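Re: the pair you flagged

First of the two:
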Amino acid sequence: MKKPVPHVPSANGARSKVAVSATDPHALYEVAVQGVEWDLDFLERVWRYRHPGREPKLFREDFCSTAALSVEWARRGRDRHAWGVDLDREPLAWARRYRLPWAREAAKRVTLVRGDVRVPRRPLVDVACALNFSWWVFRERHQLLGYLRAARAGLKPGGVLVLNLYGGLGAEKLLVERSAKPAENAPDGTMLPRFTYVWEQKEFDPINRHLLAYIHFELKDGRRVRKAFTYDWRMYTVPELTDALEEVGFRHHEVWSEGWDKTGRRGNGTLYKRTRLDHSDTWIAYVVATR
């Protein structure tokens, strides 16, 4: 495998003359799925939990797609730098067209790399992550181990890697869930209209834990984006992940999940460190590993 060549964007690049389309799947995905500020707040929180009084500066976003986390990390301070790594050319090109030109001076501190996340990266970073269950693409355990070894090798001593996963009684069901999403700005300022986000779990095999799922979008005016994204995953469990982290040499790991409001029916938006996890209908957990 050839070593990928990093691409360094320019903060002075020309702005796109074509606005984001209302049916652009990447823009719709960011509105529907990503909570960038929430994610970054948590990443900083777990870093400070391990390193009181120290601020993280260097960040790597594995499976970065449109690099929303990487750019916002860089925007949080002039001494912050971010690297976004993804194997797919198309979302990286999208980030360069629709996100970086509006990041102003922070764009100089974001490096987008087209490459395999299983290749160790330099420079070493304080914090790395693989969120939105992206690492489930490794359907064979040896592939996952290869990624975790590379992720660990790309961290400074004491650096943290954060991955998330989901499970629970309802997580393995075949289902179609619809969620209404409000109008919101795309990265280039284009206003996206209200739409419905559709998550479909099409197939699940309990023998090999293979999950086939789709994301669809339904716009208010009747337009639809069918199979905007396809996920061909292995649904790993928490012990499978933590055992793999130990095997590749991470010296510490912990599990975090969201707390509940007073009714016990809704999440309160805050993640807490857990030693036990209620096997509810569906839970999402974040595993934090320290080199």
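Second of the two:
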Amino acid sequence: MSKSTLASLLERGRAYGIPAQSVDGMSVLDVYAAASSAVLRAKKGEGPTFLECRTYRYTGHGAYDTGLDYRTQHEIDEWKARDPIKQFEQKLGTERLAAAEELEDIRAETRSRIEKAAKFAQERSYPSVDLMTKFLWA
């Protein structure tokens, strides 16, 4: 993202008097710190905060879009090397805040929850057309 685009995104929040901050969305700790600060501001009655969490989409926009028409595999691989979950797991292990077994338990629990949620969604029927448009105003 170009610096001018970045500035314009932040200016959108600032234009409404909302404090705006850009943060590395590939860093769990940076996002946590920024979000914690925003939540604290809101709880003190100081209003919202505009957070721009810069991140990267590894895949294309849809099933038939590999993403390789407008970026290289090398670029994608470089960003994947910065995967926020992998980075955070590595930090937890390096600083001995979580054992490998604990991290695997978390992964297994997460996979289980995702599988249950997907099964729940797949077993449900599609909503009726009138329900799908119930909350549309324009």
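The chain has a mean pLDDT of 90.

-B.
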